[in-house]
Amino acid sequence: LAEIKEIRNKVSPDLDFETFVHGAMCISYSGRCLLSNYMAVRDANRGACAHPCRWNYYLVEEQRPGEYIPVNEDERGTYFFNSKDLCMIDHIPELVDAGIISLKIEGRMKSIFYVAVIVGAYRKAIDTYYQNPERDIQDLKLLEELKKVSHRNFTTGFYFDKPNEESQNYDTSSYIREYDFLGLVLSYDEQTGMATVEQRNKINIGDTVEIFGPYTDHFTQTIECMLDDNDEPIESAPHAQQIIKIKTINPVSRNFMLRRKA
Question: Cα-flanking dihedrals φ and ψ of residue 104, to 5°?
Answer without folding.
Answer: -95, 130
